[in-house]
Design goal:
With about 950 residues, the chain is α+β, with helices and mostly antiparallel strands. Helices cover about 45% and strands about 25% of the residues.
Length: about 950
């Protein structure tokens, strides 16, 4: 402690001297007080009988205590000095171990940086694969610069086969091939060492593969001389002194390799591994588990006793030990030990002198003290006995050993033993051991604290287990010396039972009050005369905020403050509160509070005049549900009354309710004509009555869940109608009944019959023709295809999906655009139908001519098509005939053209001859001769020679 408070040696010496004198003074005072306690110090104190006051034993006891305290002080001094040294050594180990671990992590990080660096990898690749010498020089320069900047002594670059490519001037020996192979295979940084090189230097290598290259990576070896790098950290001494030293070592089985130079041994010896068994300090180290703060003692390599602290270097198998010679440690404590011994001798001298003086005083006052003590004790006991015997509460007194010296009649009655049997005994003779130990522990507390204590005690008595409120205090003589304890007990069993019952009742009430889902309010009604005008909150439970929605505190406030317009708008509720508070007559009430927009149910009673308790429930949801139910019932009744379906309730084979739709269905004018007057069987055709009756019986008996069947009913006029009935059972007026609705399906039955006939006709028509029918649902994209359709395409139904893609697949690519365009125009409503011819490609590749027809059968409200139906017909034969006719027509046309040319040529020559003959005849007439050619039948026709005809 002195070394912590002061740094200057002179101040430490002065403080140690003052500490020694203070120790002497305090020890002397303590010894004097102890002797007064033992011997009786004051002439008026109670004295022991002669013969029991020998001073030899107390003096020897004091001497032993002084020697013990002196030895303890000396031991404490050495121990404290040792602990302080261990703390300093531990701090030194922690700091240096952290420095070495940080240094190793930094070097590991440098190696990891090289391993993952794209720059080094790229320069190496260019150098080795492309022969770029500049890249190689840049790589070497960067490695050399990193070596100098990051504290590496040397760097070597090896190719994937372990061949040296480059190294700086301090290149170490080549790393063993297995280590190279391991680093290459695992593609991680390997740390090798520490080890001694050929020159005896302690070295550490980092084998770093360039892992970003594919294949076996090259290796960069980073070399560190640990002697140079760790010396600045290790050579500083942990504490002042010649023997202080920090040693870095590595355990290898039963041997130790020192990793630095030993301060007191030649360098050559420190380089060799040392067996643990040859050095006691190392033996201690081998037998202990090295961990942070591990302290060891033993002989070091010099044969000198030392104490050391060992710490592990993180992430390595290295250990750091800081040690100090024990001789230097104990030298520092010699001064304090000398002072302590001197103080012990002085205390022994003072104790001897004090005992001599006390012995003289004892002989003078012994007789008077004994007489006075006995007289005072008797007087006190007689006084206590007189008081105790007149009390109904147990009163007792005990001496300092816990033995009863007073026990009154009331106490004797409770324990069921005579007073004579109790006096002289302790509590173990009266109560079970656990209770006796508890009572005696309280007695010891009174003795130790020298004060009065009141506490409850639960004890077994002759009347059973009882609870006593006991007051115990120190019993003193006339000189205020403590001679025992007194006690007064009061039986509070009935009171405790009443308190427990009251506490349980309060807990139940409080639990009920706090956990009720309803709001509970305790309030005081404020009157003006006899008229209630306001209400003040006294307390509320937690549910108040939830029920009312008022989250602010209302305790001590008036309702007119919490809800400003309450008193003006809710006079009726205030009058009700005032009536309950004044008369005490409880009541309940439902009220809509407009200010909070909630319905509340109030239960109100008065615990005291002028006060009320209000238990409130938020019934807003229930009220809203009731209103909604009334509205729903009105809507349901209107719906039932206006429904076109017939709705009924049947009980005991009689109608209990029918709506107007039911009356209209069966031709009745009023419900009274049916209800309770007409049986169910009267409305069923004779052939269906037995079946309908059986179905209804089974439903009433619970054999079937619901009713749903069709039968033929009888109209009031005797006509037959087809009806569909739905129903289920329910309780009507406390008895089982059937409720449901009935529909007139006569028209539907007729339509279904006509539809069946139409479907049969369509089926016969489809079977009679070879056309294929398709029904395309545009919402799902799928179509229904008839067997003739599949037969035309050559596909089986299980081979394809009948959708638009399958249709496109079967259309010849040259015809597909025209087919899709025609269908799209019809679906858009531009054409009344979709008619087109196209070539169909079958599954075998055969080409067939098809006539396709289709029409939209269903559209939505916006006119978009939903369903389209059509047929396909094989017109390949007709197309073949048309092709043959076309070829014949072409041949005939060619022949007609040739014949026309021939006829034209022949007729032309004839016309030329006729024209020539006409010219000859005309010349003959002009000459007055008879025309030589009889062409009178042609005279009316203008004959033009060939070549002059109109073109």
């Amino acid at each position: 402690m002195v070394q912590i408070l002061f740094n200057d040696p002179n101040q430490i010496i002065l403080a140690s001297m003052l500490k020694g004198w203070l120790f002497v003074g305090v020890t002397s005072l303590l010894l004097y007080g102890l002797m007064l306690r033992w011997i009786g110090g004051d002439t008026r104190s109670t004295a022991l009988p002669a013969g029991s006051h020998g001073l030899g034993l107390p003096f020897l006891s004091l001497a032993a205590i002084i020697v013990m305290f002196t030895g303890a002080g000396i031991f404490h001094t050495f121990t404290q000095q040792k602990e302080e040294a261990i703390v300093r050594l531990q701090a030194d180990v922690d700091i240096k171990a952290r420095q070495i671990a940080d240094w190793l992590r930094e070097r590991q990080a440098d190696a990891d940086f090289i391993r993952t660096s794209d720059f080094f990898t790229e320069q190496y690749r260019r150098w080795q694969e492309s022969g770029d010498q500049q890249s190689g020089e840049r790589l070497q320069m960067q490695l050399e610069q990193l070596s100098r900047n990051r504290g590496f002594n040397a760097v070597v670059l090896l190719d994937p086969r372990g061949k040296k490519l480059w190294g700086n001037d301090r290149t170490p020996l080549t790393v063993a091939q297995p280590l190279q192979a391991a680093a290459s295979a695992e593609r991680i940084v390997r740390r090798i060492g520490p080890y001694r090189d050929a020159a005896g230097n302690l070295c550490l290598d980092f084998i770093t593969p360039l892992t970003t290259l594919s294949g076996p990576p090259p290796l960069v070896i980073l070399h560190v001389d640990l002697t140079d790098r760790l010396a600045p950290i290790l050579q500083t001494r942990p504490v002042p002194g010649a023997g202080g030293e920090t040693v870095l070592f590595q355990r290898n089985g039963d041997r130790v390799l020192f990793l630095d130079k030993l301060g007191h041994q030649g360098e050559t010896e420190a380089r060799l591994p040392v067996p643990m068994a040859t050095e006691k300090l190392l033996v201690e180290l081998r037998n202990s588990t090295v961990s942070a703060g591990n302290t060891i003692e033993g002989l070091d390599y010099r044969g000198i006793p030392v104490i050391g602290v060992v710490g592990a270097i993180a992430d390595t198998d290295w250990f750091l030990m800081t040690k100090l010679d024990l001789s230097e440690l104990y030298t520092e404590a010699v001064g304090d030990v000398t002072w302590t011994g001197f103080v012990g001798l002085l205390a022994l001298f003072m104790a001897g002198a004090g005992f001599y003086l006390l012995r003289q005083a004892q002989q003078l006052t012994l007789a008077q003290a004994i007489q006075q003590s006995q007289t005072e004790r008797l007087r006190a006991l007689h006084l206590l006995a007189a008081i105790a015997d007149s009390s109904e509460d147990p009163i007792f007194a005990k001496d300092l050993e816990g033995r009863y010296i007073l026990f009154n009649r009331a106490a004797s009655r409770f324990v069921g033993k005579p007073v004579e049997d109790v006096l002289g005994g302790d509590d173990r003779t009266l109560f079970p051991s656990e209770q006796a130990d508890l009572v005696m522990s309280i007695d010891r507390q009174v003795n130790a604290e020298n004060r009065t204590i009141t506490q409850e005690e639960r004890l077994n008595t002759s009347q059973g287990e009882r609870v006593f409120l006991t007051t115990k205090g120190p019993l003193r003589d006339s000189e205020d010396n403590m001679i025992g304890i007194f006690g007064i007990s009061r039986d509070v069993t009935e009171r405790k039972q009443a308190e427990a019952a009251l506490h349980a009742s309060e807990l139940n009430y409080r639990s009920l009050f706090e956990n009720m889902m309803n709001s509970v309010v305790h309030a005081r009604v404020i009157f003006q005369g006899e008229t209630p005008v306001d209400m003040e909150y006294i307390s509320t439970n937690p549910a108040f905020a939830t029920v009312t929605g008022i989250t602010e505190s209302v305790i001590g406030r008036r309702i007119s403050e919490v809800i400003p317009s309450y008193c003006e708008n809710n006079q009726e509720s205030l009058e009700l509160f005032g009536r309950v508070a004044a008369t005490g007559v409880s009541t309940s009430w439902e009220h809509y509070l407009r200010e909070l927009n909630r319905w509340f149910s109030f239960m109100i009673y008065s615990p005291n005049h002028g006060e009320i308790i209000i238990v409130t429930e938020n019934i807003t949801e229930r009220k809203q549900a009731e209103l909604a139910l009334r509205d729903s019932e009105g809507c349901f009744r209107a719906l039932v009354e206006q429904s076109l379906a017939g709705i009924y309730i049947i009980q005991d084979d009689r109608f209990r309710y029918v709506n107007p739709g039911f009356l209209t269905l069966f031709g009745y004018d009023s419900p009274e004509a049916l209800i309770d007057n007409v049986s169910v069987a009267d409305l069923v055709s004779p052939e269906n009555r037995e079946r309908v009756g059986e179905i209804m019986r089974r439903r009433i008996d619970g054999e079937v869940a619901d009713l749903h069947y069709i039968f033929v009913g009888l109209h009031r006029d005797g006509s037959r109608i087809d009806v569909e009935l739905h129903g289920r059972t329910f309780d009507y007026q406390g008895r089982p009944a059937i409720i449901g609705f009935i529909l007139n399906i006569t028209e539907r039955k007729t339509a279904e019959a006509q539809l069946r006939i139409s479907e049969e006709r369509l089926k016969l028509a489809l079977n009679a023709t070879s056309d294929g029918l398709w029904d395309w649902d545009l919402r799902s994209g799928l179509a229904y295809l008839t067997p003739h359709y599949y037969e035309m395409t050559g596909y089986l139904p299980n081979q394809v999906t009948p959708d638009v893609e399958f249709f496109k697949q079967t259309v010849h690519p040259d015809d597909l655009p025209h087919v899709l365009e025609t269908m799209e125009a019809h679906m858009q409503g531009k054409t009344p139908s979709s008619d087109f011819d196209y070539r169909l490609v079958t599954s075998s590749g055969e080409i067939k001519w098809i006539r396709g027809r289709g029409r939209v059968a269903e559209r939505d409200a916006e006119g978009a098509p939903l369903r389209m139906i059509g047929t396909i017909a094989d017109i390949s034969a007709r197309k073949a005939v048309e092709e043959a006719l076309r070829r014949q027509t072409q041949e005939l046309a060619q022949r007609n053209a040739e014949l026309e040319r021939f006829n034209r040529a022949t007729v032309g020559r004839e016309l030329d001859m006729i024209a020539l003959k006409q010219q000859v005849n005309e010349l003959s007439r002009q000459l007055g001769q008879e025309p030589p050619y009889p062409l009178a039948f042609l005279d009316a026709l203008p004959i033009q020679p060939k070549g002059t005809a109109a073109s």
